[in-house]
Structures are given as structure tokens and as C-alpha cells.
Amino acid sequence: ETSNWATHDIARLGVGYCPEERGIFASLSCEENLLLPPVIAPGAMTLEEIYALFPNLYERRHSPGTRLSGGEQQMLAISRALMLRPRLLLLDEPSFGLAPLIVKEIFEIMRQINQEDQVSMLLVEQNAALALNLADHAYLLETGKVVLSGPAADIKADESIRRVYLGY
């Protein structure tokens, strides 16, 4: 039974979570937000490692969360989850409300994290094209039920699936 587990216990197991609405502490600076996760997870990533992935955050490290753009807030939310050096990263709608160029940048960094750092990701994303470009395996949900699953490349290549379910 895992429903009664404390959040810090789940994090210690190597699970990082980036919520849909970002979940940053708006009154804290960017850097203060990043320094919170290491308190519960020994072996956390360093600020230097995070800033190498997201140089914008280094430039904005003293800015309060309320002064960050939506894209910077999303980068900060992902970085907070990464600070725990997770083996599994859960991402809920990381492209929500962001400009296409920022989304592209964030998804490129997520691909890098997945491939270079071997971080598995469970991604919930309404932008099917983005999700299928990043994913190895995909599940297509319709009214809360799995209607299709398989290799993302196969789903992306199937014209009938694209027309009926994905709209492109």
C-alpha cells in the first residue's frame, strides 16, 4: 500500500514530480526554490549542474518566483524535481501555457536528461506531436480509458490513428 507514503519517502525512492501548475514557491528566489529539495535527498544535483541545463535560471537566480516568466517558472519546476537526481521523473502537462519556442527548448532538455542521465519519464501531455517525439512508448487515452498503446514511433507513423485521435 503506497497511498499513505509521505512525499519525502517517495522522493527518496528516486521519483521526481513536476506538477501541471508548476508548484514553485513564488515568494522565494529562483535559487532558494532550488535549494529546498537537497534537504530531503542526499546526493542531489548541484546548482551548477542545473544552471548548465537551464542557463536562464542562473541569470534569474536572485529573482522571486513571481518575477519569472511562465517558461522560466516551468524550467524552475522541472529543475526542482531534477535536484533530487530522480530515476523517474513525472511531468504533468509541461507545455501548458507556454510559447512554442520555450516548449521546444524544454522538450530538448528533457530529451537530453532522458538520454544522457538515463532518467525515465512519465509524461502526461495533450500536445500529441510533442509527446510522441519524446516518448519511446505511448498510451492514448479516451475519456479516461486506454484505447491504444505501443511504441510511440508506430503510433506517430499510423495515418489513421493520427487523423482520428491526434488531429494532425
List keywords for this structure.
168 residues, alpha/beta, two-stranded antiparallel ribbon, 5 strands, 16% strand
Number of E-state strands? 5
Radius of gyration: 17 Å
Oligomer: single chain
Stretches with pLDDT under 50, minimum 5 residues: none
Q: The biggest beta sheet, please? A: 3 strands, parallel
Shape: globular
pLDDT averaged residue by residue: 88
Instruction: Summarize the helix and strand pattern as letters.
Output: HEHHHHEHEHEEHH
Share in helix: 40-55%
Short description:
The chain has 168 residues and is α/β, with parallel strands linked by helices. It has helices at 7-12, 30-35, 47-53, 55-59, 70-82, 100-116, 128-134, 152-157, 159-166; strands at residues 15-18, 88-92, 120-124, 137-142, 145-151. The chain contains nine helices and five strands, in the order αβααααβαβαββαα.
Description of the structure:
The structure is a single chain. Helix content is 45%, strand content 16%. Strand 4 and strand 5 form a beta hairpin. The strands form 2 sheets. A 3-stranded parallel beta sheet has the order 1-2-3. It has a two-stranded antiparallel ribbon with strand order 4-5. With 168 residues, it is of the alpha/beta class.
Reconstruct the topology from this structure:
Elements: H1 7-12, E1 15-18, H2 30-35, H3 47-53, H4 55-59, H5 70-82, E2 88-92, H6 100-116, E3 120-124, H7 128-134, E4 137-142, E5 145-151, H8 152-157, H9 159-166
Parallel strand pairs: 1-2, 2-3
Antiparallel strand pairs: 4-5
